[in-house]
Amino acid sequence: MIYQFLLSFVDTLGFLNVFKYITFRTGLSFFTSLVIVLLIGGPFIRFFSNQKILNPIRDDGPEEHIIKKIGTPTMGGLIILCGLLVSVFCWADLSNINILFCIYIAISFGLLGALDDYKKIKHSNSLGISLKFKIIAQIIISILGVSYFVYLVDYQEITNLYFPFFKNLIINLGWFFIPFSVFVIVGSSNAVNLTDGLDGLATVPVILVAGCFAFISYVTGNIVFSNYLQIPYIEGTGEISIFCSAIIGSSLGFLWFNAPPAKIFMGDTGSLSLGGSLGAIGIITKHEIVLAITGGLFVLEAFSVIVQVISYKLTGKRIFRMAPIHHHFEKKGWPESTVVIRFWIISIILAMIGLATLKLR
Fold first, then answer.
1. CA distances (Å), 144 to each of 57, 85, 150, 172, 357, in order?
2. What gap in Å lies between CA 30 and CA 27, rounded to an integer?
3. Domain tally for the chain?
4. What's the CA angle centered on 341, arms 339 and 347, to 5 degrees?
5. Is the pTM here over 0.90, yes or no?
6. What does the pLDDT look like over 307-317, one tens digit per residue?
7. Which domain holds residue 326?
8. Is the residue at 361 inside a domain?
């Protein structure tokens, strides 16, 4: 909104031309979201604590969680979303279909997550809404968003799937692009949700993936850089770097309060919203496979749950002591901080590999 308002004065005040540069607005987006979260985080936490908006702890989880984490407020995703959305509304081009698509996914998945958190808080358990309802709702939300996005986007190759490391390996998915995109968004959302089980564990990988895609979206939307890197040029995707920067700023501000020992958890409100947004960004930039690489930690966490469930149903035996896999290492005796930092290291390595795919073609 501020961006559009300032543009109306560009002819009169020439120095306002600086707001036309995506890089400048990306920086503003980062600092705006960061400052907002830092300012409202403390009051939010006090309010949630007073109102008993507390995180229910899994009965079958690591024993020390029941001692250390009980009584910690949840639904911190609301803080992240406030910083994210206010920043995007201020500095992004709201006429850009890519931005509107990301906003839609962030808000709708955030609302679904908030409903899940509300049910957990109301009934004082970790069940929330049923898994069936959650998945069906995510699929419906995604189908509506992706269908509308494909209808409006001005890019002929939108249904193409590009493979990293190969210059000419491209598959046109045709109408299968819609269910594929739904899978990416729903899968990304739930993978981040499953990873969000320890203090700060999901927050830093989200920051890293968003940072990678801030760069990817910028070069994808720049015809000079995209030609040099031999990646598809998609007009208008550079604007997504502003959305990614807002994710980084709001998540970094949230980490101030979520760092061990966490004063608040993001809950499904944050994890579903952030995960779905990253999935949408991967689709918009045509780097869905690179998203799976940079977000490989999220993939690993989700895969560990799938393997655990399949193994138990088929053989009656569990492969891991507990799933998701971060709890497996806790059960083996790793301190929580050790698990978190080592998983962060893995995320940094995967982020570097993902960025390397831009040149290694």
1. 34, 21, 10, 21, 31
2. 5
3. 1
4. 100
5. yes
6. 999 998 988 88
7. 2-356
8. no
